[in-house]
Amino acid sequence: MSNDRNPIDRMSVYVAVGFLSGIGILISTTMPMVIGSLIESLSFSESQAGDLVAIFSLTFTAIAVASLLFIRRVNWKVTALVMSAICAMSLFAVTLTPQYQTLILVFGIMGLGMGGLYALGMTILGDSSNPDKAFGLKLGYESMPAIIALFALPVLVIPEYGLKGMMYAMAAMAVIVAPLSFLIPSTGVKGSQAGLSNTSDMALQPNKTSASSLGLSIITLLASIIFFSGVIATWAFLEVIGGVKSLAVEKVGVVLALGMVSATIGAFVAAALGNKMGRYNPMIAIIVLNALSLVLIWQSATIFTFALGAILFTFCINYGLAYFFGLSAEIDISGRFVALSATTLSLGGVIGPAIAGRLIEGSGFGAVLSFSALCAVLSLTLYMVVVHLSRYKV
């Protein structure tokens, strides 16, 4: 095999990183069921359940930021195995206590494991020679664990075993996926020729290009956080919204599972399109579709219109994230800052559910959907600014 071939750009790596990342965001992708089960099984309030997820997201963020210091100095295979073990053990630990204070600690540890796993995946595929394709495929494959969970858990597990059964099943998924760690490379390629191991020297000797790259990376990160805050605010309480509309719980569970299938399709569509249609048009189209889906969810009176809105809404999530992550990797010439894109999910996970829970308690579900729409428009504006400043052809 030619030494010039990028070892990241292999289908086995895409699949392994995708499934491992799927475990890394298992709480985020199953958030409606997690929040619903915390409220139903443990009698927590909406704000208490939202705050538990916020604690998880804060530690997820902390490890993602800290990964800048070590992610290119460690063996990636070993790191993936260790983080997978933390994920499995913390999910199992949720079943051991109903105490809110203890669960704060458990969810915090869980955030460290899942955040480390997801930041690792972002770093690996940030080294790809074709980041738009790589991140599109990653987002598609990482939806697979959630699809399995959303189809199986509401029907086979939660009705009979509740929150404990759900956590047992999710812990088992983490154990099953962990061996895929052996398919990922041990180290990366981006910046290896330039001595990326000495990151402190790079920090002390900035140049105009790297400073510009950092600035654009920060703006892109901000845009993606705003986008995800909006979508997770609605996604986290989608099951609750369905219940308020008197829709059958089992049918809403099926809708959520179909939504994850739609999210997977959205990621693969983004991977196929890449920047063939430029970078403005695909994102403008998806923000318009996002607004339409929110209207359908709000106006829905039947399971059909609710399902249509939810499926369109989830299609937009991974489609949009693929473009945000791809743009971030393109402008990150050092390969260090793309790991921060993992904070899109964690900070968004802090902001979205926390705001949504309080909006629901104070103003109702319509305010949450309006918040989601506002975030989508603002994130698009920032995205277009970055594209313009980076002088992409659009």
TrEMBL record:
Residue intervals of the Major facilitator superfamily (MFS) profile domain: 10-391
Cell location: Cell membrane
Pfam family, one: MFS_1
The organism's place on the tree of life at top rank: Bacteria
Topology of this chain in the membrane: Multi-pass membrane protein
GO MF term set: transmembrane transporter activity
SUPFAM superfamilies: MFS general substrate transporter
Cellular component GO terms held in the UniProt record: plasma membrane
Major subcellular site: membrane
Entry-linked Gene3D superfamilies: MFS general substrate transporter like domains
Matching InterPro entries: MFS (IPR011701), MFS_dom (IPR020846), MFS_Efflux_Transporters (IPR050189), MFS_trans_sf (IPR036259)
Keywords associated with the record: Cell membrane, Membrane, Transmembrane, Transmembrane helix
Transmembrane segments: 12-32, 52-71, 78-97, 103-127, 139-159, 165-184, 214-237, 252-273, 280-298, 304-325, 337-356, 368-389
Name of the molecule in the record: Putative MFS family arabinose efflux permease
